[in-house]
């Protein structure tokens, strides 16, 4: 899939009830760097008030969607984004260069990410940007223990903001729990929602698309995958959600990758909250394929011109519920062995 330069990045701010999403958004919209930003606020219930709490201007404007976005994402969100693009082209809206979606505290953001990744009505107009998750430094651990949505919100994040840092530093137990759920997300303490936009978002027009959450703006391309190489390849256990990294020395055949993704979508589906990886491919050794998926939806692999470091191992991080780690490893090896044998047979027959 090719992302056009005109595609507008759509970033998502999520987090459980009371974790500071609106406070963060209010602060961000005062940042001059966010001057050409459209905001969609998703509130759960018949009467929304969050939009009344956020200062807006001619350049920062609010689109309000009531109800739960994760329940009606295919209709409400797609329709809203499509209409915003139409009105922008007609000059009825300011020329926004970024969209922020603030989800309700009860939303599972996976459905939102899926719509942004694959919906044909949004293709070419928008591209998935960063996922920001707010976690209450005081109550976050208890929230993760008692509310499944909170763990899923953390699992899909690119940045995790530990809010209310003025009241208490996050406990070592909370920090460890967040690391187990999502070792690749950068964790940042925040007081009163005060954090600069440049810390959270890539600049519009820099491209990225499905890479936005995988190649973070800090550190550059060569440092961007260091966390993958450092991740323990053994499964990290959590009562509901865990992270696991598959490491492989030998490159895969291109056909193996296609078959492997089909198998993951068919057999794992919604259990895989997020999948990210760098894949070495036999037919294209100069640069890896970048893999990015949310549940049963995967972007077509994109290619880097070169490897970001000297480490050319395939590494894929899986974040999800009851990840069948042994089955995944075995599937990949069996598929690649079958593909290699079939290609050798065809080569022998042709020779």
List keywords for this structure.
disordered N terminus, Hypothetical Protein Yjia, Chain: A,domain 2, 6-stranded antiparallel β-sheet, 7-stranded parallel β-sheet, alpha/beta, Rossmann fold, globular, 351 residues, 13 strands
Characterise the protein shown here.
The chain is α/β, with parallel strands linked by helices and 351 residues long. It has two domains: 8-211, P-loop containing nucleotide triphosphate hydrolases (Rossmann fold, 3-Layer(aba) Sandwich); 231-350, Hypothetical Protein Yjia, Chain: A,domain 2, CATH 3.30.1220.10. 33% of the residues lie in helices and 25% in strands. The protein has eleven helices and 13 strands. Strands 3-2-4-1-5-6-7 form a seven-stranded parallel sheet, with helices on both faces. Strands 8, 9, 10, 11, 12 and 13 form a six-stranded antiparallel sheet that branches. A hairpin with a 2-residue loop joins β10 (284-294) and β11 (297-298). α2 (69-89) runs parallel beside α3 and α4 crosses α5. The chain is globular. The protein starts with 7 loop residues before the first strand and ends with a helix. Mean pLDDT is 76; it is low at 1-5, 44-73 and 205-239.
